[in-house]
Design brief:
mainly beta; five-stranded mixed beta sheet; single chain; 9 strands; four-stranded antiparallel beta sheet; KIB1-4_b-propeller; KIB1-4 beta-propeller domain-containing protein
Amino acid sequence: MVAQSSGLASIIPAGSYYTYLACSSTGELFLVLKLASHYVLPNDVTKSEDVVVLRLQYSEDQPCWDVVRDLGNMSLLVGKSNSISISTEDLRGMRGNCIYLAELLSTTSSEGMLICREARMFDMKKGRWECLYSSKNFLPNARKIPVFLQPPFWFTPSLL
C-alpha cells in the first residue's frame, strides 16, 4: 500500500526529521516526525513545529496521511526500539494528547564520547517539551556506545 503524501510539503516545515511509526491497539497507524536538531540542553527544542503527527487514513482508492493536532486521551510512546499508541484513561501519571520520546544522543571527540540519554514529553496542546529524565556520561577513549548505555525503550506487558 502506498499512501499519498504530496500535500504534506506545504504542512511540514523544511528540515531533516527523525521518523517513528506507532501503531494503536485498534490498528491505527501514526507517523511521528521530530525535527532532527543537534542541541546541548534537553529543553532547547520548544517550538510546536518541531513535531508533526500524521495518521494514515486508509481507503481502497487512495490512502493518505492526515495531520493530527489532538490525540485526545491517547498518547504516543516513541523511540528507536518500539513505538506505540496507548489510551491514558486508566493510567495514572500519563497525560493524554502527549508524545513521550526516549532517545540517546552521542558525540565523539579525540578524548572520548559524551552520551546523553533522555526521556521527554511533548504536550501537543501547549506545543512544548518537558524533560522527564536526563543523564550524561563521558566515556574516555570510547569509540562506540557500550551495551549498558543503549537508548531506553518502551514496552507494554500483556497478561494474556
